[in-house]
Amino acid sequence: xxxxxxxxxxxxxxxxxxxxxxxxxxxxxxxxxxxxxxxxxxxxxxxxxxxxxxxxxxxxxxxxxxxxxxxxxxxxxxxxxxxxxxxxxxxxxxxxxxxxxxxxxxxxxxxxxxxxxxxxxxx
Length: 123
Known about the structure:
rod-shaped, 0% strand, mainly alpha, 123 residues
């Protein structure tokens, strides 16, 4: 009978589940020395920090709602600006195509009709 350490996961026991390297993430090997271990710890801390930041951003409902509102404001502003441009272009096109005399005649007809309605109601 051989003696093994009483602490699980230390020398003498292959890993928590009984297989060598089972407690290590896939694709990672044990550190070869203290410098490599420090480097692995620093990389793990950086990944963990990134993960925490991503989770915090997802949990910040107010900021997400404000960002979405800003996007919608930009979209609405663009739509309004585009509609104004289209209306201005249409008005310019109408001014070019309809002769001034026709417009003046139409305005005269409206004035005569309005005067007729006014006189008719006064009776």
